Amino acid sequence: MSAVPGSLPREPKRAPLPLDRGGRERRPTREEAGASGARRRARKTQPRLARRRQRPGGRRKRHSALLNVLMTVMLLYALLPLFWLFVNSTKTEGALFSTFGLWFGGKFALWSNIHQVFTYDNGVFLRWFGNTVLYVVAGAGGATVLATLAGYGMAKYDFPGKRLVFAIVLGAVAVPATALAVPTFLLFSDLHLTNTPWAVILPSLVSPLGFYLIWLYASEAVPTEILEAARIDGAGEFRTFLVISSRLLTPGMITVVLFTVVATWNNYFLPLIMLSNPNWYPLTVGLNDWNQQSFSAGGQAVYNLVVTGSLLTVIPIMAAFLYLQRYWRSGLAAGSVK
């Protein structure tokens, strides 16, 4: 509203001064003046921020084109072999070499190939599948249990020679498994355990990487205060581990399970040198035996069955990963210790 001619302009309203105990106005302290100024600046800034949010050309989250390209390349690198495996599983023996490898061609023969895989050579594929499941359950399961017990003990208990054990574990992690295959074969040969399932199961029980991962995870995931509280309540060490610690270690145990399951499922070199009886072959060695038939005298080429069998071999691992990944939850003990 415009001012009336001849009248004095109004003075801007000032904020009332704080009152003392006697009801008289007093000068604000430095803290009160700073807080008041901060509130005024906040009131001025809020409308500006609101306008910036409503502005269509406002500042947005930046996307890295290079990162998108790298992630696309990694996605294609991971999915392209699976796509090739599925596409070529739908082809016959002749179409497998006469058509383009990355697209469908010829007669759709997926169901026929699957039927031949399960019935070829008196259904030996099912026996190989059962052998692989046996090696995974006994070997990978036992390796996870042993790695969890040993890693938890190393993380939560002190004993003489702990640093020496730590150095030995690090050295064992650095040694590749293929370098130990021949010494392991000589040892099992002296024990007359070659060409038996124990020749594959017993070496799979040792997992230095799983032991090391559980050791690191237990050091942070299981607070010492919880263990001390359980001991005060009268719980023994085994009961404390089974009731409390094992639940806190579940994400780490699932990680070790996946590592050991994948390593045992894809294990090729150890069964190759340990086993000579086809009835004890796992899937990896059995499919390679089918692949080598065309190079032997009078052998029949069954490349379409090798490709289809490889596709069937990948499916259980993918299903196990999708099922177990839901247990990867961190921070289970967050807030449990004050």
List the SSEs and their pairings.
Blueprint: H1 30-54, H2 65-89, H3 95-98, H4 110-119, H5 124-156, H6 162-174, H7 181-190, H8 198-204, H9 208-221, H10 224-232, H11 237-248, H12 250-265, H13 269-274, H14 283-291, H15 303-324
Helix pairs in contact: 2-15, 4-15, 5-8, 5-9, 5-12, 6-9, 9-12, 10-11, 12-15, 14-15
Can you walk me through this structure?
- With 338 residues, the chain is mainly α.
- The chain has a domain at 112-327: Orthogonal Bundle (MetI-like fold), CATH 1.10.3720.10.
- The chain is built from 15 helices and no strands.
- α2 (65-89) crosses α15 (303-324).
- The longest helix is centred in the middle third of the chain and has 33 residues, at 124-156.
- The protein is globular, with a radius of gyration of 34 Å.
- Residues 330-336 have low confidence and may be disordered.
Short description:
With 338 residues, the chain is an all-alpha fold. The protein has 15 helices and no strands. Helix 5 (124-156) packs parallel to helix 8, helix 5 packs antiparallel against helix 12 (250-265) and helix 10 (224-232) packs antiparallel against helix 11.
| Uncertain runs | 330-336
Structural class: mainly alpha
Looking at the structure, the CATH topology of the domain at 112-327 is MetI-like fold
What is the H-and-E element order? HHHHHHHHHHHHHHH
- Per CATH, the superfamily of the domain at 112-327 is MetI-like
- Describe the largest sheet: none
Gross CATH architecture of the domain at 112-327: Orthogonal Bundle
CA(first)-CA(last) distance: 61 Å
Based on CA inertia axes, which overall geometry fits?
globular
Q: What is the overall pLDDT average? A: 83
**Into which percent range does the helicity of residues fall?**
55-70%
Total strands: 0
What is the CATH C level class of the domain at 112-327, in words? Mainly Alpha
Q: Any idea what the radius of gyration is?
A: 34 Å
Total count of helical runs of at least 4 residues? 15
Portion of residues in beta strands equals under 5%
